[in-house]
Amino acid sequence: MTTRYQDTSPVSTDPSQKTVAASRVRMNELVMPNDTNQLGNLMGGRLLHLMDICSAISAQRHCNRNVVTVSVDSVEFREAIRLGEVVVIEGEITRAFNTSMEVAIQVWAENLRAGTRRLCTTSYYTFVAVDADGNTVPVPPIIAETEFEKKRFEEATERRRIRLEMSKKSNI
Ligand SMILES: CC(C)(COP(=O)(O)OP(=O)(O)OC[C@H]1O[C@@H](n2cnc3c(N)ncnc32)[C@H](O)[C@@H]1OP(=O)(O)O)[C@@H](O)C(=O)NCCC(=O)NCCS
What we know:
Blueprint: E1 25-30, H1 44-63, E2 66-72, E3 86-96, E4 100-111, E5 116-130, H2 147-169
Antiparallel strand pairs: 1-3, 2-5, 3-4, 4-5
The chain binds coenzyme A.
């Protein structure tokens, strides 16, 4: 039997292979009745769950470790995703720090009958790599290749600073 799966190579532990593309994840989910509210729209909590899974796979593919979600940036539901549409979610590591990784998430709604796709939501998830006892462990650096990836890599430092600052202030 031949394999035709060419999306990403299998998880590699070789640091020279740790490009953004290598750990990119693209998930497709059909919106079913049980995923929707009374208006037939995909429920926000369900979408956050899918985004969490997609970004966690990307983070784990990059670091070859278990990861936990430490923070999720603000999520704006700009457009409803309807029953019967396909949710297309893409996760990419933008930058790996010491034990943490920032993952950029983009969500599209694809209408199969109309042959259209619209961007609905974006966010950044941050994951921390942990060992079997839950202790944090270092992660390999990410290799940003394209101009866009390099720009997003540079900008990640400022996003991280804001995130940690907000975390200090968020005690209710
Ligand atoms: C995530 C966790 C392991 C961090 O443990 P900790 O002892 O606070 O670790 P540290 O303070 O050393 O922080 C670890 C990393 O997280 C980052 N971090 C901490 N708080 C953060 C926040 N609010 N946003 C983004 N990054 C954050 C730190 O900057 C650090 O990154 P770096 O090593 O790359 O510099 C711990 O808080 C935890 O287990 N939280 C629960 C996670 C969970 O259950 N998630 C939901 C289910 S998966």
